[in-house]
Amino acid sequence: MKKVFTRIILCGIVAAVIYSCDNGNADVTVFNAAPAISFPESLESVTAGQAADLSVTVTDGEVSSLSSGTITLLSGEDEIATKTQALSGSSATLTLTAAETDIVNLTPGGYRLAISVTDSENSTNNDTTDVAIVCEALPACIEAGKRTVIVVAPSHTTNLAGFEQVGLVGSLTGWGGSPDIAMTQISANCFCAAVEFPEGVEYKFRLNSNWDFVEKRDDCSEEDNRTEVGSEPEEGEDEEPILLTVGEWRNSDQFGGSCPN
Q: Is the pTM of this model over 0.90?
C-alpha cells in the first residue's frame, strides 16, 4: 500500500511539472519588432531617360501586421514625389511609378528615396537610400576609334525657342568653319556623341551652332576652352566615356536660365 501511495505522489508531481512547463510556455511574452525595409540593388543606379518605377519591399513579424507606408523621392531637401498607402498582411511593396516621379525628365545626379512604414502595433521604421540617375551612352554614340562624350546640360536647355541641337564646336571644326558635331539627346538634359579627338584639340559646347548660346559656368562667368588628348585607347583597353557638365548657357535668361549675355 505504501508503494502504491508513493507512486501516486510521484505521478502527481510529474503532472504538476508538465502543467507548469506548458503553462510557462503559453505565458512567454513575444515582443513586437518594427517593420523591416528592403532596398533592391536596382535602385542604386537608374539610367537617365528610362521610365523606371521605384519600388521597395516592407515586411513585418508574427505579432503584428503592416498598417501604412510612405515612399518619397527627394532631391536634396526638395520633395519630387510622395505617396502614402494603407497596408495589410506581413509583406507589401511601396512603389512610385515613373509617371508619378516624371523620372524620364529628371536631371542626372544624386537623389534619395525615403521610406516610412508603420505596423498595427504602431511601431514605425524610417530609412533612406541613395538613388543615382546616370547618363549612359546610346549605341549611336559608341564608335571604334572615337571617344564617347556624354554631356549633362542645364534642365532648361531644350526650352530655347527653336531648339535644334547641343553641338560641339572647336579646333576640329574650324571653330564654326564646319558644322558643329551634333550631340544625340539621351534624356531631357543628357546628350552624347562619338568624337575623334586629334591631339591637343580645344572645344566648347553651344546651342543651334550659335555663339549667342555658348556654354558658360554655372555662375555665368566665361567657360575656358575644353581640351582632350587623342582618341586611341591602349591596346586591349576600352576608353571610358568622357563625362562633362555644362553649367549654363549665354543668354539663358531668355529660356529659363539665369545668365544674360
A: no
